[in-house]
Amino acid sequence: MYIKKFLDLGMQPLANRYLTKKDILKKTQEIFYHLEVGFNIKTKLVSILKKIPSKIIFDDKYPYRSSMSRTMILSFKKLAKNIINNYNPNFILEIGSNDGALIRNFSKNKAICVEPCKNLAKITKRMGYKTYSNYWDIQLAKKIKSKTKNIDLIYSANTLSHINDTNSVFNSICHVLTDDGILIIEEPSFLECLKKVAYDQFYNEHVYVFSLSSIINLVKKFNLEVFDIEKINTHGGSLRYHIKRVSNNKFKIDNKVKIQLEQELKNGINKYSTYIKFKNKVINSKKKLKKIFLRLKKRNKKIIGYGATAKSSTVLNFCNIKNETLEYFLDTTPGKIGKYMPGTHIPIKGYNRSLLNEADYAFLGAWNLKEEIFKKERRYIKNGRKFITHVPVPKII
Ligand code: DWN
Fold it and tell me: Is residue 149 over pLDDT 90?
Protein backbone atom coordinates (compact mmCIF):
# COMPACT_ATOMS: atom_id res chain seq x y z
CA MET A 1 0.00 0.00 0.00
CA TYR A 2 1.40 3.48 -0.89
CA ILE A 3 -0.21 5.55 1.89
CA LYS A 4 2.08 5.96 4.92
CA LYS A 5 0.60 7.49 8.08
CA PHE A 6 2.66 10.34 9.56
CA LEU A 7 0.41 12.27 11.94
CA ASP A 8 -2.15 11.34 14.63
CA LEU A 9 -4.30 14.28 15.82
CA GLY A 10 -6.42 12.08 18.09
CA MET A 11 -10.20 11.88 18.34
CA GLN A 12 -11.74 14.92 16.71
CA PRO A 13 -15.35 16.14 16.35
CA LEU A 14 -16.67 17.61 13.08
CA ALA A 15 -14.92 20.98 12.96
CA ASN A 16 -17.98 22.95 11.84
CA ARG A 17 -20.53 21.09 13.94
CA TYR A 18 -21.03 23.82 16.57
CA LEU A 19 -23.33 22.78 19.42
CA THR A 20 -26.46 24.59 20.58
CA LYS A 21 -27.25 25.41 24.22
CA LYS A 22 -29.86 22.63 24.04
CA ASP A 23 -27.20 20.13 22.89
CA ILE A 24 -25.04 21.09 25.87
CA LEU A 25 -27.91 20.88 28.39
CA LYS A 26 -29.17 17.59 26.96
CA LYS A 27 -25.56 16.30 26.80
CA THR A 28 -26.25 15.34 23.16
CA GLN A 29 -23.86 12.54 22.13
CA GLU A 30 -21.14 14.14 19.96
CA ILE A 31 -19.44 11.94 17.38
CA PHE A 32 -15.64 11.92 17.38
CA TYR A 33 -13.52 10.52 14.55
CA HIS A 34 -9.89 9.39 14.71
CA LEU A 35 -8.04 12.07 12.73
CA GLU A 36 -4.92 10.53 11.22
CA VAL A 37 -3.03 11.91 8.23
CA GLY A 38 -1.09 10.01 5.58
CA PHE A 39 1.20 10.62 2.61
CA ASN A 40 0.85 8.65 -0.61
CA ILE A 41 4.45 7.99 -1.73
CA LYS A 42 3.25 7.34 -5.32
CA THR A 43 0.84 10.24 -5.96
CA LYS A 44 2.37 12.62 -3.33
CA LEU A 45 -1.18 13.19 -2.12
CA VAL A 46 -1.59 14.14 1.56
CA SER A 47 -4.92 13.05 2.99
CA ILE A 48 -6.75 12.17 6.17
CA LEU A 49 -7.13 8.40 6.54
CA LYS A 50 -10.72 8.20 7.79
CA LYS A 51 -13.07 9.75 5.19
CA ILE A 52 -16.48 10.97 6.39
CA PRO A 53 -19.38 11.04 3.87
CA SER A 54 -20.05 14.60 2.59
CA LYS A 55 -23.73 14.25 3.42
CA ILE A 56 -22.85 14.10 7.15
CA ILE A 57 -20.68 17.25 7.01
CA PHE A 58 -22.17 19.57 4.40
CA ASP A 59 -25.80 19.76 5.51
CA ASP A 60 -28.34 22.62 5.52
CA LYS A 61 -26.82 24.26 8.61
CA TYR A 62 -23.20 24.55 7.44
CA PRO A 63 -22.10 27.78 9.18
CA TYR A 64 -18.98 28.92 7.34
CA ARG A 65 -19.47 32.06 5.21
CA SER A 66 -16.69 33.30 2.90
CA SER A 67 -18.04 36.85 3.09
CA MET A 68 -17.32 37.12 6.83
CA SER A 69 -13.86 38.50 6.01
CA ARG A 70 -12.87 41.49 3.88
CA THR A 71 -9.70 39.57 2.98
CA MET A 72 -11.76 36.95 1.12
CA ILE A 73 -14.20 39.47 -0.42
CA LEU A 74 -11.29 41.54 -1.83
CA SER A 75 -9.40 38.44 -2.98
CA PHE A 76 -12.44 37.20 -4.93
CA LYS A 77 -13.13 40.68 -6.37
CA LYS A 78 -9.56 40.91 -7.72
CA LEU A 79 -9.76 37.37 -9.07
CA ALA A 80 -13.00 38.09 -10.92
CA LYS A 81 -11.35 41.06 -12.65
CA ASN A 82 -8.37 38.90 -13.67
CA ILE A 83 -10.64 36.13 -14.97
CA ILE A 84 -12.53 38.59 -17.17
CA ASN A 85 -9.30 40.28 -18.39
CA ASN A 86 -7.36 37.05 -18.99
CA TYR A 87 -10.07 34.66 -20.17
CA ASN A 88 -13.25 36.70 -20.80
CA PRO A 89 -15.40 33.57 -20.32
CA ASN A 90 -18.76 33.06 -22.08
CA PHE A 91 -20.09 31.17 -19.08
CA ILE A 92 -18.65 30.48 -15.64
CA LEU A 93 -19.55 27.63 -13.29
CA GLU A 94 -18.51 27.80 -9.62
CA ILE A 95 -18.28 24.55 -7.64
CA GLY A 96 -18.79 25.33 -3.92
CA SER A 97 -20.12 28.88 -4.27
CA ASN A 98 -20.81 29.22 -0.50
CA ASP A 99 -22.51 32.66 0.04
CA GLY A 100 -21.56 34.03 -3.39
CA ALA A 101 -18.43 35.99 -2.42
CA LEU A 102 -16.91 35.30 -5.87
CA ILE A 103 -19.93 34.80 -8.16
CA ARG A 104 -21.42 38.17 -7.13
CA ASN A 105 -18.71 39.74 -9.33
CA PHE A 106 -20.15 38.13 -12.50
CA SER A 107 -23.35 38.89 -14.36
CA LYS A 108 -26.26 36.61 -13.45
CA ASN A 109 -26.89 35.43 -17.02
CA LYS A 110 -23.30 34.26 -17.46
CA ALA A 111 -22.83 32.29 -14.23
CA ILE A 112 -24.06 29.15 -12.46
CA CYS A 113 -23.51 28.05 -8.84
CA VAL A 114 -23.20 24.60 -7.31
CA GLU A 115 -23.59 24.59 -3.51
CA PRO A 116 -24.82 21.47 -1.65
CA CYS A 117 -25.47 23.30 1.65
CA LYS A 118 -29.06 24.46 1.26
CA ASN A 119 -28.75 27.37 3.73
CA LEU A 120 -25.92 28.79 1.60
CA ALA A 121 -27.47 27.95 -1.80
CA LYS A 122 -30.48 30.01 -0.72
CA ILE A 123 -28.23 33.10 -0.57
CA THR A 124 -27.05 32.94 -4.20
CA LYS A 125 -30.55 32.00 -5.36
CA ARG A 126 -31.86 35.11 -3.59
CA MET A 127 -29.11 37.11 -5.36
CA GLY A 128 -30.60 35.84 -8.65
CA TYR A 129 -27.97 33.26 -9.66
CA LYS A 130 -28.97 29.87 -11.07
CA THR A 131 -27.93 27.61 -8.18
CA TYR A 132 -27.87 23.81 -8.04
CA SER A 133 -28.03 22.74 -4.42
CA ASN A 134 -26.48 19.30 -5.04
CA TYR A 135 -23.16 17.56 -4.48
CA TRP A 136 -20.75 17.80 -7.43
CA ASP A 137 -20.85 14.50 -9.39
CA ILE A 138 -21.44 13.15 -12.90
CA GLN A 139 -25.26 13.14 -12.57
CA LEU A 140 -25.24 16.84 -11.80
CA ALA A 141 -22.63 17.51 -14.52
CA LYS A 142 -24.83 15.77 -17.11
CA LYS A 143 -27.87 17.76 -15.92
CA ILE A 144 -26.00 21.07 -16.19
CA LYS A 145 -24.46 20.17 -19.58
CA SER A 146 -27.91 19.30 -20.95
CA LYS A 147 -28.99 22.89 -20.21
CA THR A 148 -25.77 24.89 -20.65
CA LYS A 149 -23.34 23.86 -23.39
CA ASN A 150 -20.80 26.68 -23.40
CA ILE A 151 -19.25 26.55 -19.93
CA ASP A 152 -15.69 27.63 -20.71
CA LEU A 153 -14.56 28.48 -17.18
CA ILE A 154 -14.98 26.39 -14.04
CA TYR A 155 -13.80 27.81 -10.71
CA SER A 156 -13.59 26.19 -7.30
CA ALA A 157 -12.11 27.49 -4.05
CA ASN A 158 -11.53 25.43 -0.90
CA THR A 159 -13.98 22.78 -2.11
CA LEU A 160 -12.35 20.02 -4.18
CA SER A 161 -10.10 19.20 -1.19
CA HIS A 162 -13.33 18.40 0.69
CA ILE A 163 -14.53 15.75 -1.81
CA ASN A 164 -13.24 12.20 -1.35
CA ASP A 165 -13.76 10.83 -4.89
CA THR A 166 -11.27 12.86 -6.98
CA ASN A 167 -11.92 10.71 -10.07
CA SER A 168 -15.61 11.65 -9.98
CA VAL A 169 -14.69 15.33 -9.45
CA PHE A 170 -12.42 15.63 -12.50
CA ASN A 171 -14.47 13.28 -14.66
CA SER A 172 -17.49 15.54 -14.05
CA ILE A 173 -15.47 18.68 -14.74
CA CYS A 174 -14.23 17.23 -18.06
CA HIS A 175 -17.82 16.36 -18.98
CA VAL A 176 -19.00 19.98 -18.61
CA LEU A 177 -15.95 22.05 -19.64
CA THR A 178 -15.64 23.08 -23.32
CA ASP A 179 -12.56 21.82 -25.20
CA ASP A 180 -10.72 25.13 -24.83
CA GLY A 181 -12.21 25.77 -21.38
CA ILE A 182 -10.19 26.71 -18.29
CA LEU A 183 -10.39 25.22 -14.79
CA ILE A 184 -9.18 27.34 -11.87
CA ILE A 185 -8.75 25.67 -8.47
CA GLU A 186 -7.74 27.49 -5.27
CA GLU A 187 -6.67 25.54 -2.19
CA PRO A 188 -4.43 25.83 0.89
CA SER A 189 -0.87 24.93 -0.12
CA PHE A 190 0.68 21.93 1.63
CA LEU A 191 4.14 23.53 1.29
CA GLU A 192 2.92 26.57 3.29
CA CYS A 193 1.28 24.22 5.78
CA LEU A 194 4.64 22.45 6.17
CA LYS A 195 6.60 25.70 6.59
CA LYS A 196 4.14 27.13 9.13
CA VAL A 197 3.58 23.82 11.01
CA ALA A 198 -0.09 24.61 10.36
CA TYR A 199 -1.41 21.23 11.44
CA ASP A 200 -4.84 22.84 11.87
CA GLN A 201 -5.36 22.62 8.12
CA PHE A 202 -6.18 18.99 8.95
CA TYR A 203 -9.72 18.38 10.10
CA ASN A 204 -12.45 15.97 9.08
CA GLU A 205 -13.73 18.25 6.28
CA HIS A 206 -10.31 18.56 4.63
CA VAL A 207 -9.92 15.17 2.96
CA TYR A 208 -6.82 16.45 1.13
CA VAL A 209 -4.28 19.23 1.49
CA PHE A 210 -2.95 19.65 -2.02
CA SER A 211 0.46 20.52 -3.38
CA LEU A 212 1.34 21.30 -7.00
CA SER A 213 3.04 17.87 -7.14
CA SER A 214 -0.15 16.07 -6.09
CA ILE A 215 -2.45 18.20 -8.29
CA ILE A 216 -0.28 17.51 -11.36
CA ASN A 217 -0.55 13.75 -10.66
CA LEU A 218 -4.30 14.00 -10.11
CA VAL A 219 -5.26 15.93 -13.26
CA LYS A 220 -2.93 14.22 -15.73
CA LYS A 221 -5.18 11.12 -15.56
CA PHE A 222 -7.83 13.32 -17.24
CA ASN A 223 -5.50 14.79 -19.90
CA LEU A 224 -5.48 18.04 -18.00
CA GLU A 225 -2.38 20.06 -17.13
CA VAL A 226 -1.46 23.02 -14.89
CA PHE A 227 -0.26 25.85 -17.14
CA ASP A 228 -0.09 28.69 -14.60
CA ILE A 229 -0.02 29.08 -10.84
CA GLU A 230 -0.51 31.92 -8.34
CA LYS A 231 0.67 32.03 -4.73
CA ILE A 232 -2.01 33.86 -2.70
CA ASN A 233 -2.20 34.72 1.00
CA THR A 234 -5.69 33.40 1.67
CA HIS A 235 -6.28 30.63 4.22
CA GLY A 236 -2.75 30.74 5.54
CA GLY A 237 -1.12 30.52 2.11
CA SER A 238 -2.89 29.00 -0.88
CA LEU A 239 -2.11 28.09 -4.48
CA ARG A 240 -4.41 28.98 -7.35
CA TYR A 241 -4.00 26.49 -10.21
CA HIS A 242 -4.88 27.44 -13.80
CA ILE A 243 -5.60 24.18 -15.66
CA LYS A 244 -6.38 23.36 -19.30
CA ARG A 245 -6.76 20.28 -21.49
CA VAL A 246 -3.41 18.98 -22.81
CA SER A 247 -4.89 19.29 -26.33
CA ASN A 248 -5.48 23.03 -25.88
CA ASN A 249 -2.40 24.84 -27.28
CA LYS A 250 -3.70 28.36 -26.60
CA PHE A 251 -1.60 28.66 -23.43
CA LYS A 252 2.07 27.80 -22.79
CA ILE A 253 3.17 26.31 -19.46
CA ASP A 254 4.29 29.33 -17.40
CA ASN A 255 7.73 29.16 -15.75
CA LYS A 256 6.06 29.75 -12.35
CA VAL A 257 4.84 26.15 -12.48
CA LYS A 258 8.41 24.83 -12.78
CA ILE A 259 9.62 27.14 -9.98
CA GLN A 260 6.84 26.02 -7.58
CA LEU A 261 7.60 22.36 -8.35
CA GLU A 262 11.31 22.94 -7.64
CA GLN A 263 10.42 24.68 -4.37
CA GLU A 264 8.29 21.73 -3.31
CA LEU A 265 11.02 19.21 -4.17
CA LYS A 266 13.67 21.36 -2.46
CA ASN A 267 11.51 21.26 0.72
CA GLY A 268 11.32 17.47 0.50
CA ILE A 269 7.60 17.21 -0.32
CA ASN A 270 8.26 13.87 -2.04
CA LYS A 271 10.15 12.32 0.92
CA TYR A 272 8.45 10.49 3.80
CA SER A 273 11.18 11.74 6.16
CA THR A 274 9.85 15.31 5.67
CA TYR A 275 6.51 14.23 7.09
CA ILE A 276 8.08 12.62 10.15
CA LYS A 277 9.95 15.89 10.82
CA PHE A 278 6.60 17.70 10.45
CA LYS A 279 5.01 15.34 12.98
CA ASN A 280 7.76 16.05 15.51
CA LYS A 281 7.30 19.81 15.06
CA VAL A 282 3.55 19.41 15.63
CA ILE A 283 4.15 17.56 18.90
CA ASN A 284 6.56 20.32 20.03
CA SER A 285 4.04 22.95 19.00
CA LYS A 286 1.40 21.31 21.20
CA LYS A 287 3.75 21.24 24.21
CA LYS A 288 4.75 24.88 23.72
CA LEU A 289 1.20 26.16 23.30
CA LYS A 290 -0.01 24.35 26.42
CA LYS A 291 2.95 25.80 28.36
CA ILE A 292 2.05 29.35 27.32
CA PHE A 293 -1.59 28.91 28.39
CA LEU A 294 -0.58 27.29 31.69
CA ARG A 295 1.85 30.10 32.49
CA LEU A 296 -0.77 32.79 31.81
CA LYS A 297 -3.50 31.01 33.75
CA LYS A 298 -1.13 30.70 36.72
CA ARG A 299 -0.89 34.50 36.58
CA ASN A 300 -4.75 34.65 36.51
CA LYS A 301 -4.78 36.19 33.07
CA LYS A 302 -8.10 36.25 31.22
CA ILE A 303 -7.74 34.50 27.85
CA ILE A 304 -10.38 34.34 25.12
CA GLY A 305 -10.48 33.12 21.49
CA TYR A 306 -10.70 35.39 18.43
CA GLY A 307 -12.29 33.70 15.37
CA ALA A 308 -14.10 30.40 16.12
CA THR A 309 -12.53 28.70 13.12
CA ALA A 310 -12.70 25.09 12.00
CA LYS A 311 -8.91 25.17 12.25
CA SER A 312 -9.02 26.10 15.94
CA SER A 313 -11.28 23.09 16.59
CA THR A 314 -8.37 20.85 15.55
CA VAL A 315 -5.90 22.72 17.79
CA LEU A 316 -8.12 22.83 20.88
CA ASN A 317 -9.16 19.17 20.69
CA PHE A 318 -5.60 18.00 19.90
CA CYS A 319 -4.18 20.08 22.77
CA ASN A 320 -7.14 19.39 25.05
CA ILE A 321 -7.73 23.10 25.73
CA LYS A 322 -11.15 23.83 27.21
CA ASN A 323 -13.11 26.70 28.79
CA GLU A 324 -11.09 26.76 31.98
CA THR A 325 -8.35 28.14 29.71
CA LEU A 326 -10.27 29.97 26.95
CA GLU A 327 -13.36 31.52 28.56
CA TYR A 328 -15.18 32.18 25.28
CA PHE A 329 -14.62 32.81 21.57
CA LEU A 330 -15.63 35.96 19.71
CA ASP A 331 -16.88 35.52 16.15
CA THR A 332 -18.83 37.53 13.56
CA THR A 333 -20.53 34.57 11.83
CA PRO A 334 -24.33 34.46 12.41
CA GLY A 335 -24.40 30.62 12.32
CA LYS A 336 -21.76 30.35 15.07
CA ILE A 337 -22.81 33.04 17.56
CA GLY A 338 -24.52 31.69 20.69
CA LYS A 339 -23.21 28.18 20.02
CA TYR A 340 -20.35 26.11 21.48
CA MET A 341 -17.05 24.90 19.99
CA PRO A 342 -17.11 21.24 18.83
CA GLY A 343 -15.60 18.89 21.38
CA THR A 344 -14.37 21.54 23.84
CA HIS A 345 -17.76 23.27 24.25
CA ILE A 346 -16.15 26.70 24.66
CA PRO A 347 -18.99 29.25 24.23
CA ILE A 348 -19.01 31.48 21.13
CA LYS A 349 -20.16 35.07 21.61
CA GLY A 350 -21.01 37.65 19.00
CA TYR A 351 -18.10 39.96 18.39
CA ASN A 352 -18.14 43.21 20.40
CA ARG A 353 -15.28 45.39 21.50
CA SER A 354 -16.09 45.51 25.23
CA LEU A 355 -16.00 41.70 25.43
CA LEU A 356 -12.62 41.82 23.71
CA ASN A 357 -11.31 44.52 26.02
CA GLU A 358 -12.17 42.40 29.06
CA ALA A 359 -9.43 39.98 27.96
CA ASP A 360 -5.70 40.18 28.63
CA TYR A 361 -4.92 37.74 25.80
CA ALA A 362 -6.77 36.49 22.72
CA PHE A 363 -5.93 33.18 21.03
CA LEU A 364 -5.93 33.90 17.27
CA GLY A 365 -8.11 31.12 15.90
CA ALA A 366 -8.26 32.99 12.57
CA TRP A 367 -4.48 33.37 12.21
CA ASN A 368 -4.92 33.37 8.43
CA LEU A 369 -6.73 36.72 8.80
CA LYS A 370 -4.14 38.25 11.13
CA GLU A 371 -3.50 41.33 8.97
CA GLU A 372 -7.20 42.21 8.76
CA ILE A 373 -7.78 41.52 12.47
CA PHE A 374 -4.70 43.44 13.66
CA LYS A 375 -5.82 46.44 11.59
CA LYS A 376 -9.31 46.21 13.09
CA GLU A 377 -7.98 45.80 16.64
CA ARG A 378 -5.36 48.55 16.59
CA ARG A 379 -6.71 50.04 19.84
CA TYR A 380 -6.70 46.67 21.66
CA ILE A 381 -3.04 46.25 20.67
CA LYS A 382 -2.19 49.91 21.49
CA ASN A 383 -3.59 49.31 24.99
CA GLY A 384 -0.91 46.68 25.43
CA ARG A 385 -3.21 43.70 25.00
CA LYS A 386 -1.83 40.66 23.22
CA PHE A 387 -2.73 37.83 20.89
CA ILE A 388 -1.52 34.23 21.13
CA THR A 389 -0.72 32.32 17.95
CA HIS A 390 0.40 28.74 17.36
CA VAL A 391 1.81 29.24 13.83
CA PRO A 392 4.60 28.91 12.87
CA VAL A 393 5.58 28.44 16.54
CA PRO A 394 3.38 29.14 19.59
CA LYS A 395 4.08 32.64 20.90
CA ILE A 396 2.55 35.81 22.23
CA ILE A 397 2.27 38.54 19.57
O1 DWN B 1 -11.86 25.01 4.00
C2 DWN B 1 -12.57 25.73 4.70
C3 DWN B 1 -12.30 27.16 4.78
C4 DWN B 1 -12.61 27.73 3.43
O5 DWN B 1 -13.11 27.83 5.68
C6 DWN B 1 -13.76 25.24 5.38
N7 DWN B 1 -13.67 23.80 5.46
C8 DWN B 1 -14.00 25.83 6.71
C9 DWN B 1 -13.48 27.21 6.88
O10 DWN B 1 -12.31 27.15 7.66
P11 DWN B 1 -12.07 28.16 8.89
O12 DWN B 1 -13.24 28.18 9.77
O13 DWN B 1 -10.78 27.78 9.47
O14 DWN B 1 -12.03 29.51 8.04
P15 DWN B 1 -11.56 31.00 8.34
O16 DWN B 1 -11.74 31.76 7.12
O17 DWN B 1 -10.22 31.03 8.97
O18 DWN B 1 -12.65 31.51 9.41
C19 DWN B 1 -12.51 32.81 9.92
C20 DWN B 1 -13.43 32.95 11.11
O21 DWN B 1 -13.10 34.13 11.80
C22 DWN B 1 -14.90 33.03 10.72
O23 DWN B 1 -15.69 32.31 11.65
C24 DWN B 1 -15.20 34.52 10.85
C25 DWN B 1 -14.26 34.93 11.97
N26 DWN B 1 -13.85 36.34 11.96
C27 DWN B 1 -14.16 37.13 13.05
O28 DWN B 1 -14.78 36.67 13.99
N29 DWN B 1 -13.78 38.44 13.05
C30 DWN B 1 -13.15 36.83 10.90
C31 DWN B 1 -12.76 38.15 10.90
C32 DWN B 1 -12.01 38.73 9.77
C33 DWN B 1 -13.09 38.98 12.03
O34 DWN B 1 -12.75 40.18 12.06
Answer: no
